[in-house]
Specification:
The protein is α+β, with helices and mostly antiparallel strands. 18% of the residues lie in helices and 27% in strands.
């Protein structure tokens, strides 16, 4: 009897000791570690133990492209190297040009800036060089007005009545004299603006040596060209306001908006031969492994940009496709809900709410040719960070362990919200335990 009692006491003490140890371990672990362990347990319970060699699609098929060229931060005019880098818009046609002019003819009066174009990465194409002539305030004909419209600018800044710019402005290279002279209707006449702004446009007028942002915007969807916007400038010179004796520096507007027309369209990165990343933010339940909390495409490359002294660098071209989670989540430092211009509580492109894809580029470090990185390493290094309450953790992927991120091809169709991935792709379970299985 005494032996039995001592045995029971020993077992109880060991149990208390075990509980105490577990509690202590739990208290010393941060939220990220706990969340990842719970995620791993739920994943294994749902799909079984992953194969030890399962790399979750992060393999040698992910390429590193060679985009070495000298470009500034804000523009890219190396048109012969755009293939595989950007999705190139259609050429400008004479029918398109006429459609814009016809639309302008329908309006009357001052229609300046009736629409703001919201892009940060965009193409600029020339559409129309005006032929209108004007008289200055002396009554003398100045000739074709568009010849005096130069130095096309874009930005989020403003232009004062004195023609002085304030705020953020950048030069759109190769656009002068109301035109783009290098086969302007094709790719040869386009300029790409990166990490810039299409909120405002301006030209420099050589008549009064001032900048002017007198234009109206036409939405291409209203004339059969959806996805394009047309910035239509009106000629103005008002230099005689400051110099009243110089009447040759003053020219009144005609409000036709046909002196110079350009086309603006979003610049989306060409994801051909890139990779799509689908991810879980660690909040999955056994019935909700949908891997759509964030979905983005990536293409990694080597460049030698001017703003890094032509040092060869690794970069990632990223296109955000969906945000099925409701926690703050950043990809490459960009909060995905903010990028889609929605509240954090709104799920994007996974069911109810749809939005256009968002493109951006990020720096991934300088190239060390004695220890070059693979495409898989570079894509893995794109930081995907989740915040829950005051806890922050980065999504990771390790061979043979439950994946927080999975790499698939860019034609992969992600599942709708709260649809388990294995309901749409039943071979997913098999693939977890055998990477040779083709599961989608």
């Amino acid at each position: 009897m005494k032996k039995l009692i001592f045995t029971l006491i020993f077992v109880m003490l060991m149990g208390f000791s075990f509980i105490s140890c577990n509690k202590h371990d739990f208290e010393t672990k941060d939220y990220s570690t706990i969340a990842k362990e719970q995620f791993d347990a739920k994943f294994t319970q749902t799909f079984g133990i992953p194969a030890s060699n399962q790399d979750w699609g992060f393999d040698e098929s992910i390429k590193v492209f060679d985009f070495t060229q000298a470009i500034t931060r804000s523009h890219d005019v190396n048109r012969n190297q755009w293939s595989g880098k950007y999705v190139i818009p259609a050429n400008v046609t004479s029918e398109e040009e006429q459609a814009v002019i016809n639309k302008l003819a329908e309006g009357s009066g001052n229609r300046d800036k009736n629409l703001t174009i919201p892009y940060t990465n965009f193409f600029v194409y020339h559409v129309h060089k005006g032929t209108d002539t004007y008289n200055d305030h002396n009554g003398s004909n100045i000739g074709v007005a568009s010849d005096k419209m130069n130095h096309l600018q874009c930005g989020s800044g403003t232009v004062g009545e004195n023609g002085v710019q304030s705020g953020f402005w950048e030069h759109v290279n190769d656009f002068n004299s109301g035109q783009q002279t290098a086969n302007w209707w094709t790719i040869e006449g386009a300029t790409v603006m990166l990490e810039s702004s299409s909120a405002n446009f301006a030209y420099h007028n050589s008549t009064d040596s001032k900048y002017h942002d007198t234009y109206t915007v036409i939405d291409g969807a209203t004339i059969g060209y959806p996805g394009f916007y047309y910035v239509c400038f009106d000629f103005l010179a008002n230099g005689d306001i400051e110099q009243p004796s110089n009447k040759n520096m003053g020219v009144d507007r005609n409000y036709n908006y046909t002196d110079w027309i350009i086309r603006v369209s979003p610049c989306e990165f060409d994801m051909t031969n890139g990779v799509r990343i689908i991810a879980e933010d660690l909040g999955a339940s056994e019935s909700d492994f949908d891997y759509n909390d964030v979905v983005f495409d990536a293409k990694v490359a080597i460049e030698n940009p001017a703003d890094r002294n032509y040092q060869n660098t690794y970069v990632a071209y990223i296109v955000l496709r969906a945000a099925g989670g409701t926690l703050p989540l950043t990809v490459g430092g960009k909060e995905v809900h903010e990028a889609f211009n929605v509240p954090t509580s709104t799920m994007v492109n996974t069911g109810l709410y749809t939005a256009n894809s968002v493109s951006f580029k990020m720096y991934l470090g300088d190239v060390d040719y004695s220890n070059q990185k693979s495409g898989a390493e570079l894509v893995k290094s794109i930081p995907v960070i989740v915040k829950k309450n005051n806890d922050v953790y980065e999504l990771e992927v390790e061979t043979g362990k439950a994946p927080e991120k999975i790499a698939v091809s860019t034609d992969f169709e992600w599942v709708s919200e709260r649809t388990p991935i294995y309901k749409v792709y039943p071979l997913f379970k098999n693939w977890v335990q055998d990477k040779s299985i083709i599961w989608y």
